[in-house]
Specification:
Chain A: This is SpoIIIJ-associated protein. Chain A: GO terms for molecular function: RNA binding. The structure holds 2 protein chains of 2 kinds. By secondary structure, chain A is an alpha/beta fold. Chain A has 5 helices and 7 strands. Chain A is 45% helix and 21% strand. Chain A has a 4-stranded mixed beta sheet with strand order 1-2-3-4, with helices on both faces. A 3-stranded antiparallel beta sheet of chain A has the order 5-7-6. In chain A, helix 1 packs across helix 3 and helix 4 crosses helix 5. Chain B has a single domain, classed as GMP Synthetase, Chain A, domain 3, CATH 3.30.300. Classes of the chains: A alpha/beta, B alpha+beta. The interface between A and B is medium-sized, with 22 and 25 residues.
């Protein structure tokens, strides 16, 4: 049976609102609806998994942790992406809000983020050293953001995305 | 990877849950598993008002539903979305 635990990272929020004016209660509600939707699926599949709901950086997050979750991740995270999309729709139906909810299963996104951060650093160092722009392989929105976040934190390189899904890529250039 | 193959029996309720959660008329959702001559298929019937939601822009949502069905052990099972009863 899937179990749900809750944890709201409110940060600097006061009276349920962050400095950016985002309603953290609304974001938390989104993560609760999303967790219920995913939990319902896990129960039908008789898959054990702990479900954590949180709000981090003004973004609702649902993380499923446990064993035997590979099927829900799928090749290259394809099933995870599909499930995230459906979960966002479930949140939209109940709240009327287009949610930026992030779903992670079996730590797939966190390990993929670590890989991409290492790749971005390596590419950024090369671009800074040799001065030639580099086009990365096509990536999905989550993967591109992982790369952009690393590049944006540096002053010696810049990044932008070009092309259309599913062939959209990040280009890293000298700043 | 170490996960036993899923019984096909869960595909129908799993798909039903996924569809019911995204439509305005969950009570109108019917999902049937059909063993046809050309293989198995899951037939999803929804309220006509919800058809657009379940198919999505450029078939995006239907594709996501098919991807999850494939992922949970339904490889080769077709998913058909209909608006009639």
């Amino acid at each position: 049976m899937a179990e749900t635990t809750t944890d709201v990272a409110r940060g600097e929020a006061s009276e349920g609102r962050t400095t950016a004016g985002v309603d953290t209660d609304a974001l938390f509600e989104q993560s609760e609806i999303a967790a219920d939707y995913v939990e319902g699926l896990l129960d039908i599949l008789d898959t054990d998994g702990d479900i954590d709901e949180l709000v981090k950086d003004d973004r609702p997050i649902v993380e499923v942790v446990g064993e035997g979750l590979n099927q829900l991740v799928g090749p290259g995270g394809a099933t995870l992406e599909a499930l995230q999309e459906l979960t966002r729709l479930a949140v939209f139906r109940k709240t009327g809000e287009h949610s930026r909810l992030m779903l992670d299963i079996g730590g797939f996104r966190s390990s993929r983020r670590a890989e991409l951060q290492a790749l971005a650093k390596k590419v950024a160092d090369e671009v800074a050293q040799y001065g030639n722009p580099v086009r990365l392989d096509p990536m999905n929105a989550f993967e591109r953001k992982c790369v952009h976040d690393v590049i944006n934190a540096r002053k010696d390189v810049a990044s932008e995305s070009e092309g259309t899904e599913p062939d959209r890529r990040v280009i890293v250039s000298p700043a | 990877m170490g996960t036993p193959p899923r019984s096909p029996d869960v595909l129908r309720p799993a798909l039903e849950h996924l569809v019911k959660g995204i439509v305005d008329n969950p009570d109108d959702v019917r999902v049937r598993m059909i063993n046809g001559r050309r293989g198995k298929r899951l037939e999803v019937r929804v309220n006509p008002d919800d058809l657009g939601t379940v198919i999505g822009r450029s078939g995006r949502t239907a594709k996501a539903l098919r991807q999850v069905v494939t992922g949970i052990g339904g490889r080769g099972v077709r998913v058909e979305i209909l608006d009639s009863y």
